[in-house]
Design brief:
about 375 residues; alpha/beta; Nucleotidyltransferase, domain 5; DNA polymerase, domain 1; 3 domains; two-stranded antiparallel sheet; 8 strands
C-alpha cells in the first residue's frame, strides 16, 4: 500500500486535497454501512487521479470540509461507477462534527458527473454492467474479490481491505480515460454528460415524509380511507426513522403498515389483533398509530377515488410491440443499451396517453424520439 495515501488526520487530508487538486478530473468511490441506521454511515472515501490514490477515513476525521470544498468545485469532472448510491451517501454525509454530534448536511451533490456504468451503456454494454466486469472488458484486468461484505466501520482496517478499497478507484482512472475517448470518437460524450447531469438533482437522494407513500405498491386498490391511512402512516414512519436514525423497516415494516391501513383499528384491543405489526412497535407507538388512523378516518372525504386504468385495446398493444421492436433494432444498429434509448414505460406512455416527455427532449429526441413519434402517429 506504499503507493496509496491513507488519510486519518487533518494534515494528511490537506496533503490529499493538494494531490487531487492538480488534476482536471477526480475518480471517486465510497464504502459505507446502513444496516442499522436510516442515514448511511460514510466509512471511507476513495479518490484518485493520474497523480495518485488516497483513502480518506471519515471515522477518524472530525472535519471533511477541505474534501467537500474540492468536490464542490465544478471545474473538475467527478468520475464514479454506478454513481447514484455513492452520490446519495456523500450528499447525506456530515460535513463536520458539532459538539460531538455529526448531522447530515444533505443537498450537496458534487458535479459535473461522469458515470462509467452509464458511459458503457452508451457504447453498447449492458446498462447495469458491474465495475469488475467493465474493468476486465476494457482494461483486461481481473479485480480481486472477497471484501464486498466487510464491516467498514471496524478499525483498524487490514492491508487487504485497504487494497480492495484502493482498487475501486485505482483502475477507474484509466477506465475513465478509455471510455471518454471512445464516447468522443462515437460522438456521444455530450450525451453521457447530459444524462449524468440528472444525477445532480438533490431531490433524487432525499425523501420528504409526505412523499414517502410513493415507495408503497398497490395503494390504488385500497378504499379512499385506507389509502389515506397508508399515506399518513408512511409519513409518520419516515419522520420517526429520520429523527431516530433507524431503518424505516425497524420503525414499522411494510407488511405491518399495509395491515394497519387495511384493518383501520380504532382501539388498543384491535391493535393487538394485528398479526404483522411487531409487538414492540405496538408497545412503543400504540397511541400514535391510533391517532394516525383516526386522522385518516376524519379526512377520508378529501382523498380522491382512484380509478384503475382500463386494459389497453389490441391496437394499442400492437403499437407498443411495434415501437419496442423499433427501439431494439435502433439500439442494435447504434450499439447502445436499448433501455437508454427508451424504456417500455416510455413507449406505453406515448401510445396510451400521447405524452412523450422522456424522449422528446435532449439527446433522446435526436437519437430516437422524433422517429418514435412519427411511427406512433402512423395509422396501421
Amino acid at each position: 500500500m506504499s503507493d496509496v495515501l491513507y488519510v486519518s488526520s487533518s494534515e494528511d487530508l490537506q496533503r490529499a486535497v493538494a494531490l487531487l487538486a492538480r488534476s482536471s478530473f477526480i475518480v471517486l468511490d465510497t464504502e459505507f454501512m446502513r444496516e442499522s441506521t436510516y442515514y448511511p454511515i460514510l466509512c471511507l472515501v476513495q479518490a484518485a487521479t493520474p497523480d495518485g490514490c488516497v483513502i480518506i477515513d471519515p471515522l477518524a476525521l472530525k472535519d471533511l470540509q477541505p474534501l467537500w470544498d474540492l468536490l464542490d468545485d465544478r471545474g473538475r469532472v467527478k468520475v464514479l461507477h454506478a454513481a447514484r448510491q455513492d452520490l446519495e451517501v456523500m450528499s447525506q454525509a456530515p460535513r463536520s462534527s458539532v459538539a460531538g454530534i455529526a448531522l447530515p448536511e444533505g443537498g450537496k451533490i458534487p458535479g459535473p458527473i461522469f458515470d462509467t456504468q452509464l458511459a458503457a451503456a452508451f457504447l453498447g454494454y449492458p446498462a447495469q454492467i458491474g465495475y469488475g466486469n467493465l474493468v476486465a472488458e476494457r482494461l483486461g484486468h481481473t479485480l480481486a474479490k472477497g471484501h464486498a461484505r466487510t464491516d467498514w466501520t471496524r478499525r483498524p482496517l487490514s492491508d487487504e481491505q485497504l487494497s480492495y478499497a484502493a482498487d475501486d478507484v485505482r483502475y477507474l482512472v484509466p477506465l475513465y480515460v478509455d471510455l471518454a475517448a471512445a464516447l468522443t470518437s462515437a460522438g456521444r460524450l455530450e450525451w453521457e454528460m447530459e444524462e449524468a447531469s440528472k444525477l445532480e438533482d438533490p431531490a433524487l437522494f432525499r425523501t420528504e415524509p409526505q412523499e414517502a407513500w410513493r415507495r408503497l405498491k398497490g395503494l390504488e386498490r385500497l378504499k379512499p380511507a385506507q389509502r389515506l391511512a397508508a399515506k399518513l402512516l408512511a409519513a409518520w414512519r419516515e419522520t420517526k426513522a429520520m429523527k431516530h436514525d433507524r431503518p424505516r423497516g425497524w420503525i414499522l415494516p411494510d407488511d405491518g403498515l399495509r395491515e394497519l391501513a387495511e384493518r383501520m383499528p380504532s382501539s388498543a384491543a384491535q391493535l393487538e389483533e394485528l398479526r404483522l405489526v411487531p409487538a414492540g412497535v405496538l408497545r412503543k407507538n400504540a397511541d400514535e398509530l391510533l391517532e394516525v388512523i383516526a386522522q385518516a378516518q376524519r379526512d377520508a372525504q378529501h382523498e380522491p377515488s382512484y380509478e384503475l386504468p382500463g386494459r389497453p385495446d389490441p391496437d394499442q398493444v400492437a403499437r407498443v410491440t411495434k415501437l419496442m421492436s423499433f427501439v431494439r433494432s435502433q439500439a442494435e444498429q447504434m450499439k447502445i443499451a436499448p433501455e437508454l434509448l427508451a424504456t417500455r414505460r416510455d413507449v406505453e406512455q406515448l401510445v396510451f396517453s400521447g405524452r412523450a416527455q422522456a424522449i422528446s427532449t435532449g439527446w433522446r429526441r435526436v437519437a430516437i424520439g422524433e422517429q418514435l413519434l412519427e411511427l406512433a402517429l402512423e395509422r396501421r
